[in-house]
Write a structure and sequence with these properties.
Distance between the termini: 8 Å
Structural class: alpha/beta
Helix content: 40-55%
Low-confidence stretches: 188-199
Radius of gyration: 20 Å
Shape: globular
Order of helices and strands: EHEHEHEHHHHHHHEHHHHEH
């Protein structure tokens, strides 16, 4: 009988759900290496606002795909998937379990289900969309996207320039909504099983049963970030001549709102309220994504024993895999 690799556990959840705590607790029970599945953690010099694992936490257990880019650079879903698949092999070769941790649900979807072939970027269309955005703002283009592709628009923030631009670009190039293209069968060459003999990915989803309690945690978390020097962190980025608000890094929740505050466009109270609102909206979109993953194992992140429950769920998955060998 051929021995199959263990299932690959993915700790998913909205912002502030305790994913990092669960992963670190798991590392004390098994030899794991953590692969970040968070599009903000890839950036250097963005530590406080991304709730990046501390140096001590990163020293306690190997972490990957953290601090790999300068904030002036961009990182694609396709690049994440390529890096992640290579890391899985390397970690397994070291005799450890790869565990994915994060809240960028598009990364999980690409990792577990593969990537669709989409048309390449078109400079002319992008330039035209940027010109409209300069005149009317990205919320206006978001409203336009909602007319042509309401499914995609529903999961994007009105100021998510990069993704709004890409969705409208795809619609103009193909005449089809991006969401409709994603519903088509994946090309055989893009499915995970053709890349390497992966076992299936199993999502452990930390989801709040009490939205009010979760929102309170989000507010307290942001307050803690401000007390830890979040504004000073953004100010150092703001002082760089090569960074601007349209970059994916600066559009991260909290960073964009503080950037606007540093530009003098809002006062401190407005910045605080806008950051809390944006974080809550991000969490809602993450939960919407999670509900599409029917195979997920749900853990109530509001429960006092949520970390222990997540660890127990992972250990049960691995034990069943051993029994099935």
């Amino acid at each position: 009988m051929q021995i199959q690799p263990f299932p690959i556990v993915c700790l998913l959840g909205p912002t502030g759900s305790g994913k990092t705590a669960a992963a670190l607790a798991l590392s004390r029970l098994a030899k794991i290496e953590i692969i970040s599945m968070d599009s903000a953690l890839v950036y250097r010099d963005m530590d406080i606002g991304t709730a990046k694992p501390t140096r001590a936490e990163q020293a306690a257990v190997p972490h990957h795909l953290i601090d790999i880019l300068d904030p002036a650079q961009s990182y694609s879903v396709a690049q994440f998937r390529q890096d992640a698949l290579q890391l899985i092999d390397a970690i397994r070769a070291r005799g450890a379990y790869p565990v994915f941790v994060g809240g960028t649900m598009l990364y999980y979807k690409a990792l577990a289900q593969g990537l669709h072939t989409l048309p390449p970027a078109n400079p002319e269309i992008r330039a035209a969309l940027n010109a409209i955005a300069e005149r009317e703002g990205w919320p206006a283009l978001h409203a336009q996207l909602a007319q042509h592709d309401p499914v995609t628009a529903a999961r994007l923030a009105p100021n998510d320039a990069q993704r709004i631009q890409r969705a409208l670009e795809i619609w103009q190039l193909t005449g089809q909504p991006m969401s409709a293209l994603f519903e088509q069968p994946l090309p055989a060459s893009n499915t995970p099983d053709t890349v390497q003999p992966l076992s299936h990915f199993i999502p452990i989803a930390l989801e709040p049963s009490d939205r009010n309690l979760w929102r309170t945690r989000i507010s307290q978390r942001f307050t803690d970030m401000l007390n830890a020097g979040f504004v000073d962190e953004v100010a150092q980025l703001h002082a760089r001549a090569d960074l601007h608000v349209d970059l994916p890094s600066i559009r991260c929740v909290g960073y964009r709102q503080i950037w606007s505050y540093l530009d003098g466009k809002t006062d401190y109270a407005q910045m605080y309220a806008a950051s809390i609102a944006a974080t809550s909206q991000l969490g809602k979109r993450q939960l919407t994504w999670l509900r599409t993953f029917k195979e997920r194992h749900i853990i109530d992140c509001c429960a006092p024993e949520a970390t222990q429950q997540a660890m127990a769920a992972v250990m049960r998955i691995w034990e069943r895999s051993i029994e099935a060998q």
